[in-house]
Amino acid sequence: MRAAKSAYPLTWRIMDALEAFAAFVWPARFGRAIPWLMLAPALLLVGLLVLGLWQIGDASLRTLDTSTFLMSETYTLANYRRAFTESLFAVVAWRSLAGSLMVTAVTLILAFPYAYVMVRTSSPVIRKLLLIALFLPFFIGQVVRAYGWLIILGNQGMVNEALSLVGIAPIRLLYNYWAVLFGLVQYMLPFAVLMLAPALTAIPEELEAAAGSLGADWVRTFRHVVLPLARPGLVGAGLVVLTLSLTDFAMPAILGGGSQDFIANAIYDQFFRTSDQGLGSTLALLLVATGSLLVGLVFTLFGAGTLAMGRARQ
Amino acid sequence: MREDKLTSLMLRRRRFLQGAATIGGAAGLSSLGLSSAFAQEPEKPKELIVRAWGGSWVDALKAGVSDSFTAKTGIAVRHDLTEDNEIQPKVWAAVAQGRVPPIHINWDTTTNATKSALRGVTEDLSDLSNLKSTTDLAKPVGLDGYPIVNTYGYVYVLAYRPDAFPNGAPKSWKDLLDPKYKGRIALYNDGIGFHFPAQVAGGGKLEDIPANMQPAWDFVAKMKEQQPLLGEDPDFTTWFQKGEIDAACTISTNAREAKKNGIDIKWVVPEEGAKFDTDGLWIPKGLPANELYWAKEYINHSLTVEAQQIWLDGLGLPGVVPGVKPPADLVDDPSYPTTEDAFKHLIRISSKVQVENESEWFSKFKAIMQG
Q1: Which of A54, A127, A163, A261 is the most buried (most CB within 10 A)?
Q2: Does A40 lie in the same domain as A135?
Q3: A156 lies within 8 A of chain B by CB
Q4: Are B61 and B311 in contact (CB under 8 A)?
């Protein structure tokens, strides 16, 4: 008896019991459903999103009655007509779109060398410093960072104080379009570096060495070896930066001085300032549609990049 | 027999103690206007949640109304600093879904509160005993009964830094069109407070509101050339303090707050006039009966002279109860109108007209400023 016990330890018995319990709860004939079971949380999440979008879609077809502040019982396309015909929304949409494209381009240009040095440096100290500088902003929220720029770039801020030392009068550095884009680039940079770093790590250093040994200078190696191989990272980082910039609220609100609204600010105004949930929903849906179209366009032209999880189009 | 006598004595003592407690309680509560309701006084909640604006606004409410209410009733008051615009959909959704609303009392602009009243989510406050001692200002215009109780008025003044106006105080809103103030002016980001004086400054008439406000939009377009900063209440105080602006159309409380913080700042009501409006308190529907009772008593308490005096000293605004005295620094100040003559220079448009047209006005203003 004692020998049998030691031959079949307690932990095995526990495992047997767990297996029997699992077989009881999920019999072997249900095996085909396991992938669906694993997908269930994601499906639930997407389902909730679709449900929310359905409700937003429903609200977008109703107008606000300002004598009762209730939404209309009947459906109408009036909100969509307003969204497409009122100059305010065209201006804000164009500003958001152009701004997000510029922010994406500048962020990728700045993030690439940062990520490259971080990945390729042989100095552990430099790598750690770059990593700390990268992660530190993540611990500081977007709003706090925006207020930080108010302190640095304000009329009585550090930059203008420094300029005054050399006799230059204070310059209005804040509350304009460029201040918003500047704030967005600074906010997006860590996201882009984090998306680019794995793609650059995946490029064997030997390829660059081989290109050099065959006579290619640094520029040619970069253009014909590094850049094409880094494309998945650039696409992934670009998509993340583009969509986050397009939908940003805080930077335009804080650094724009109230006159540089993006679409998210216009949506906020409709929901919370004029209580017009119908028009707010319409603008929200149009923003989702615009973002989805842009992402679809990038997927079509360049593939999904690192977002394809190793299945990027070759 | 002995037992009977003892029981009788105990009963008499208990009755005496109950009677004494009743008299004492009634004496204490009479100052709250609760004496008539004492017999039916419902169970007290542990706390009341009052939505309020932050900074000096909530400090004044706490000092004037909430602390004294807690002292008299023992009910704690928690201030919820969610923005008024953001609490509104939450309250509306709670009422629509039959849930208990997230707050007991909403401290709100009368315009915003009127929207909630029109939607039917506000409790009627007509039975508040202290209403009979208030001025006409307490009554919301264009609404039946008291779905809101206005608690004070305020003026959207032209606040300015005197050193930026070396020739003396600005006399007109048009003075802000001087090129030297380019980028040095601030307005509310939806234009609130500026639409009506702009109508006059643009050559229009107040009687034409809302039918023809083109003069207002023309003047706003001229002001746009000055590249004004657009913000919310706290922004104005900050911008004055940080030297970002020289002048602003803002509620006098914000200018006074900057002045209290050591900034040299003054304010005027320009010749075209300045918008006068009110804020108020209201209770959302859906509260349990006992909580509704005490929420009403909170608002009733806010209408006492003592509470108004401290609350509005903090805000620097005129109240709705006769006998409230202006703070020493605001005696005869245009932002603290107390006489009929002082009101002549102020522009007051009914909340109903404002509510029905607000969305369109905001859109027009935004379209000009964002263009």
Answers
A1: A261
A2: no
A3: yes
A4: yes
Closest by Cα among A107, A150, A132 to A250: A150
CATH code of B155-276+337-370, in short, is 3.40.190.10
For the residues of A40-108, what is the DSSP string, one character each?
HHHHHHHHHHHHHHHHHHHHHT--EETTTTEE-SS--SHHHHHHHH-HHHHHHHHHHHHHHHHHHHHHH
Q: Are residues A167 and A25 in the same domain?
A: no
In a domain, A88, yes or no: yes
Domain ranges of chain B: 39-153+278-330, 155-276+337-370
ipTM of the complex: 0.81
A70 touches chain B (CB under 8 A): yes
B87-96 pLDDT per residue, tens: 999 999 999 9
Query: A26-64, pLDDT tens digit by residue?
Result: 888 888 888 888 999 999 999 999 999 999 999 999 999
Q: Which CATH class name applies to B39-153+278-330?
A: alpha beta
Query: 3-state DSSP call for residue A216?
Result: coil
The alpha carbon of residue A145 is apart from the nearest alpha carbon of chain B, in Å, by 17
What is the average pLDDT value for chain B, to the nearest integer?
89
Residue A128 identity: K
The nearest alpha carbon in chain A to B227 belongs to A259
A272, A279, A281, best to mutate vs chain B, most B CBs in 10 Å: A272
Q: Give me the residues of A, 117-136, that contact B with CB < 8 A.
A: none
Alpha helices in A121-157 (DSSP H): 124-135, 142-153
Q: What DSSP element (H or E) covers B232?
A: none
- Span B203-236, pLDDT tens digits: 999 999 999 999 999 999 999 999 999 998 888 8
* A52 Cα to chain B: minimum distance (Å): 15
Distance from CA of A156 to the nearest CA of B (A): 6
For residue A7, being part of any structural domain is answered with yes
Could you list the residue range(s) of the whole structural domain that residue A26 is in?
1-60
Residues of chain A with pLDDT under 50: 1, 312-314
Examine the domain organization and report whether A128 and A192 are in the same domain: yes
